[in-house]
Amino acid sequence: ALPSEAIKTVPTIAETGERLFAKRNWFILEAILVEYVKGRRWFRGKGRDPWAAEILERGRRLILAEFPAVRVRRDYDTSLPDITGDREQLIQAVLNIARNAAQSITQAPPSGGGAKEGEIVFRTRAVRQVTLAKKRHRLALELQVIDNGPGIPEEIRDRIFYPLVSGRAGGTGLGLALAQSFVQHHHGSIEAESVPGRTCFTLRLPLAKENNHE
Q1: Cα dist. 130→91, 99, 180, 183 in Å?
Q2: Which of the four pLDDT bands, split at 50, 70 and 90, describes residue 162?
Q3: Percentage of residues in the chain having pLDDT higher than 90
Q4: FRET label pair with 20: which of 59, 78, 128, 165, CA 20 to 30 Å apart?
């Protein structure tokens, strides 16, 4: 194990990515991201609270701490069963999407529906008869991150999950690429729809106990 003083000097994956991005070391950056995704440990959510609420609440707290002017509203289906997966990867996927939304909101006035403030909604539902990673599931989790910001620029909407594509000045374009990698690593899917005033990212993931949710 590394001594405590050495641990403090170890860069995070985000810090390493930013440095490699600045130096245009694309191949090294891609290799690091692939190994990071492969090397994570898996878990099965436990406890009285549904796993989705636990993960989303972690993301919600982090977003509120970083962007106190943005409202984050909950719309959870609390009857959902657990999922098998990596807690930190799933939190990071949600956080990357929500952080992009919060940054867009704070850089431009919220619009749509007469909104008075920037808002992000975390929404979970069960969906039936879904094909994920070429496998049919009777039941899956649908997790949506919805915001009322200015929307994704039209010229990059078809490429938002590509590495190094960003709609923000100074953006690295790594957040959504990582989110997609994490979701696909869990045999799930991720897609986005965006118009000015409403952007919705939809994640679908297999549930651990499909037969227990009728």
Answers
A1: 23, 28, 18, 15
A2: confident
A3: 34
A4: 59
